[in-house]
């Protein structure tokens, strides 16, 4: 049992600003309602499932509650979804509408920061959830990993694991039970991304199997039931009907324009807001001309029953489809009529719906709903009705902790805020607690109406509370599939709350459960933000740097940085070494006296004789428990803060490496870790800006490296390019890494003409194991100071390269390498080297920004040759 809370009066408007409700004086008798416990286990709030805060919002939710149609949109990546169609179906027609993305976008590039790979996937997951908060949809995923561009859908299915990802799509269909499935892409192979085609192939296969009780029977054993949607369609975009002609009878056209009743914005404008959430993909300034006008979407039948007038033809979208539910439709219609009569929604008054007669009507509907057999649709509708009821009661809760993070087992001083601004009687009757999961404590209480109270509770975080980490990253997966051991998590966008709370209230003789989770109030430039409280280790670990190069049997210092989350953290830190490696000392003690204190510990590590890449681990023992995690925070203004705590690893690369360049300048592009890798190669790296690109300022440098997509994102490069080329002409070396063909700040990418191919799939090699031909085997780029051979192209990750030049001055540039994906002609633009005056200019589409941080030995040897040209 928790100790009796300390209760205090809260001044008006001190609660969540989103509530926007009037606050009355706290009544003394309300204090007697407080129970000796508050924290509880609760279901998470999904994107789009928020409590309405205006009369217009209540009316829209009521109309949505009356509808029972469900649509699932299926595609491959974040930003593939049709946001206007989702807005129209969700906000316009009130249907349950969701987007199933096969991947989380892990394999793409980042326009706004340094995150790549799994970190980028976490950011893009949150961007999709932010998009759904705009357009009103819900979000699902499979376990498929976005491993980068694919030219063949069969490669995608093979690498993902065809049956595993198909099972995930079937699971989502059986869980969400859509009436109609809509695929974004065609199942026919084409020049589009292989993931796109694979998403349509999987959607069709899952459509056929989801209703088959013999398919994936393990899901039925886990409580799911077969479900067969009415049809599956391909969304063909907004082409409309041919001008002055006859529409294709096999294609269904639907008008998806309109205006949102709550915000007054057009569906097109809301779709733009949704699309703009994909800022890591460069959509932060996204806009669409004519977004307020009519828009038609076309649909082609891929399976199931044909439709002639609407995508939900033949689907009963009323409550009559639910056994015993026919009466609910008339009750909702009566409630809507009662809510709007004599009280126009447009009058803009504040929402205190207990001043109307809506609450009794909602409670009557709630009784009818409680008597219906439970299925996913009914469960969702019960939750939706409870949100409407909560809004009409003026009932809000907020559970906060002063600190943003908690260590398992430590005390927590929790503050609970409860407000009831309406006049319909509401009693707080109990809670369910994580110390006693599922136990309901009850106690008679007086009405909370017109009150706002706060209670402080001293409790404890469970000692076995798992550390905050996205569920799909908790265990290592395969090259194409995340590992998820708990099948109930598959399909979910994010983790359920770690520290959840249920508040139990009595309303009209019925029990209303209001779910919340423990949060921390973060001050921002725009006010404040509620972030879930993270569960952290008492210490976090970090190798400095995260990639290190060793000579075979060579020794060098390895540094571990330890950061203490709490004062008086003490223990020992030990390296976890692979076979054949040694470290001295074996372990070292540490003792921190302050929160946030950081210290570094050096170990003398000797590599094995074997060349290649090895992973070194580390653990810190504190009070008998071992902690092995690093700490990484993703914090952008447009998405909630994300904390990642994965097992810390050092990628140790053992190789024979010679480097002629010692002083290298680095001009950053859109973000990469190549500069750190150059430092590991023994180079002294100087970070540059455009103003530094003069022969005089660069004269002491052996080479200058230009970061990825610098010609796309830097505004200070084009004007200073002549100075950089003058440095080359005087004897310097420049290596320019890949750029997009679109959005270049200048067409001049070097001293001599070269153009990047606009046909992006054609001018890239996605097979990381593609054979490489040496077109100029005696060129210094392949011979000095390291002799490059076929073995140096083994073990590459994700791809060989992207956005190769399509044309170049062949008299001036030497094409050093040729490579191609299976069945395609060789591409010769991956590595172009030109003499310019006394120096060297290199343009390369090889993805060094992926290979070097991944510890690929051959990539280091080749890059060392490039920066050493002329040395």
Strand content: 25-35%
CATH third-level topology of the largest domain: Rossmann fold
Query: How many distinct beta strands?
Result: 41
How many domain regions?
Answer: 4
Average of per-residue pLDDT values: 88
Model regions low in confidence, pLDDT < 50 over at least 5 residues: 1-48, 237-247, 342-350, 437-444
User: Roughly how many Å is the radius of gyration?
Assistant: 30 Å
What's the shape?
A: globular
CATH class of the largest domain: Alpha Beta
**Largest sheet: spatial strand order:** 4-3-2-5-6-8-7
What would CATH call the homologous superfamily of the largest domain?
A: LmbE-like
Structural class: alpha/beta
| Gap from first CA to last CA | 73 Å
Helix content: 10-25%
Number of helical segments? 18
What is the CATH architecture term of the largest domain?
3-Layer(aba) Sandwich
Biggest β-sheet strands, sense, barrel: 7 strands, mixed
Sum up the structure in keywords:
7-stranded mixed β-sheet; globular; 871 residues; Immunoglobulin-like; single chain; alpha/beta
Model description:
This protein is an alpha/beta fold and 871 residues long. The chain has four domains: 6-48 and 392-461 and 499-531, no CATH class; 68-309, Rossmann fold; 539-653, Immunoglobulin-like; 658-867, Class I glutamine amidotransferase (GATase) domain (Rossmann fold, 3-Layer(aba) Sandwich). 21% of the residues lie in helices and 26% in strands. It contains 18 helices and 41 strands. The strands form eleven sheets. Strands 4-3-2-5-6-8-7 form a seven-stranded mixed β-sheet, with helices on both faces. The chain has a seven-stranded mixed β-sheet with strand order 32-31-33-34-41-40-38, with helices on both faces. β2, α2 and β3 (96-101) form a beta-alpha-beta unit. α1 (55-66) packs antiparallel against α9, α4 crosses α5 and α9 (326-340) runs antiparallel to α10.
């Amino acid at each position: 049992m928790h100790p009796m809370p300390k209760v205090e009066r809260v001044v008006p408007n001190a609660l969540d600003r989103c509530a926007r409700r009037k606050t009355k004086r706290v009544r003394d008798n309300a204090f007697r309602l407080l129970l000796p416990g508050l924290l509880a286990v609760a279901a998470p709030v999904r994107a789009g499932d928020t409590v309405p805060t205006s009369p217009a919002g209540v009316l829209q939710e009521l109309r949505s509650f009356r509808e029972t149609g469900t649509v699932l949109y299926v595609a491959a990546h974040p930003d593939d979804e049709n946001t206007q169609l989702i807005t129209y179906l969700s906000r316009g027609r009130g249907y349950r509408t969701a987007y199933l993305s096969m991947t989380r976008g892990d394999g793409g590039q980042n326009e706004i920061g340094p995150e790549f790979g799994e970190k980028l996937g976490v950011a893009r997951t949150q961007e999709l959830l932010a998009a759904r908060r705009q357009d009103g949809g819900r979000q699902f995923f499979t376990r498929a990993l976005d491993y980068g561009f694919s030219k063949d859908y069969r490669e995608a299915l093979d690498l993902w694991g065809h049956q595993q990802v198909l099972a995930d799509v079937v699971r989502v269909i059986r869980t969400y039970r859509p009436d109609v499935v809509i695929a974004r892409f065609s199942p026919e192979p084409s020049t589009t991304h292989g993931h796109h085609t694979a998403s349509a192939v999987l959607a069709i296969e899952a459509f056929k199997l989801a209703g088959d009780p013999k398919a994936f029977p393990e899901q039925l054993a886990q409580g799911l039931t077969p479900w067969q949607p009415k049809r599956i369609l391909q969304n063909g975009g907004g082409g409309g009907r041919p001008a002055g002609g006859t529409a294709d009878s096999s294609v269904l056209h639907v008008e998806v324009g309109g205006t949102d009743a709550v915000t007054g914005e057009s569906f097109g404008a809301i779709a733009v807001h949704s699309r703009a959430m994909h800022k890591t993909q460069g959509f932060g300034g996204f806009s669409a001309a004519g977004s307020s006008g009519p828009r038609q979407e076309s649909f082609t039948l891929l399976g199931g029953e044909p439709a002639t007038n609407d995508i939900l033809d033949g689907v009963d979208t009323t409550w009559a489809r639910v056994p015993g539910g026919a009466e609910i439709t008339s009750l909702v219609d009566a409630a809507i009529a009662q809510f709007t009569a004599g009280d126009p929604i447009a009058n803009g008054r504040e929402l205190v719906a207990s001043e109307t007669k809506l609450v009794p009507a909602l409670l009557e509907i709630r009784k009818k709903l409680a008597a219906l057999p439970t299925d996913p649709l009914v469960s969702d509708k019960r939750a939706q009705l409870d949100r409407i009821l909560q809004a009409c009661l003026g009932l809000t809760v907020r559970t906060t902790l002063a600190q943003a993070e908690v260590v398992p087992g430590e005390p927590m001083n929790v503050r609970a805020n409860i407000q009831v601004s309406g006049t319909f009687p509401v009693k707080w009757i109990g809670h369910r607690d994580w110390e006693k999961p599922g136990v309901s404590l009850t106690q008679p209480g007086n009405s909370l109406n017109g009150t706002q109270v706060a209670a402080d509770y001293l409790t404890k975080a469970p000692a076995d509370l798992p550390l905050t980490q996205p569920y799909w990253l908790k265990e290592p997966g395969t090259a194409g599939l995340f590992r998820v051991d708990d099948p109930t998590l598959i399909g979910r966008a994010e983790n359920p709350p770690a520290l959840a709370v249920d508040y139990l209230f009595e309303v009209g003789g019925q029990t209303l459960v209001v779910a919340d989770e423990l949060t921390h109030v973060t001050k921002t430039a725009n006010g404040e933000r509620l972030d879930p409280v993270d569960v952290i280790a008492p210490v976090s670990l970090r190798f400095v740097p995260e990639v290190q190069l060793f000579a075979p049997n060579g020794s060098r210092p390895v540094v571990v940085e330890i950061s203490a989350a709490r004062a008086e953290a003490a223990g020992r830190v030990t390296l976890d070494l692979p076979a054949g490696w040694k470290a001295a000392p074996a372990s070292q003690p540490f003792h921190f006296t302050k929160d946030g204190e950081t210290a570094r510990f050096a170990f003398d590590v000797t590599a094995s004789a074997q060349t290649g890449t090895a992973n070194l681990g580390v653990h810190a023992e504190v009070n008998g428990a071992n902690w092995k995690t690093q700490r990484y925070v993703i914090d952008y203004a447009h998405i909630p803060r994300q904390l990642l705590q994965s097992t810390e690893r050092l990628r140790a690369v053992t190789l024979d490496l010679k480097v002629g360049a010692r002083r290298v300048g680095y001009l950053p592009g859109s973000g990469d870790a190549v500069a750190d890798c150059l430092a590991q190669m023994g180079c002294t790296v100087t970070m540059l800006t455009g103003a530094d690109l003069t022969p005089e300022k660069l004269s002491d440098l052996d080479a200058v490296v230009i970061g990825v997509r610098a010609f796309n994102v830097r505004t200070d490069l084009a004007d200073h390019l002549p100075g950089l080329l003058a440095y080359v002409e005087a004897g310097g070396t420049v290596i320019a890494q890949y750029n997009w063909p679109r959005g270049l700040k200048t067409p001049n990418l070097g001293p001599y003409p070269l153009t990047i191919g606009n046909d992006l799939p054609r001018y890239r090699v996605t097979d990381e194991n593609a054979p490489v031909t040496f077109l100029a085997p005696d060129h210094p780029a392949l011979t000095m100071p390291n002799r490059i051979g076929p073995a140096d192209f083994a073990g590459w990750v994700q791809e060989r390269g992207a956005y190769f030049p399509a044309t170049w001055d062949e008299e001036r540039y030497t094409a050093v390498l040729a490579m191609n994906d299976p069945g395609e002609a060789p591409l010769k633009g991956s590595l172009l080297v030109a003499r310019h005056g006394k120096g060297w200019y290199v343009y390369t589409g090889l993805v060094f920004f992926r290979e070097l941080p991944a510890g690929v030995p051959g990539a280091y040897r080749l890059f060392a040759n490039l920066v050493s040209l002329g040395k």
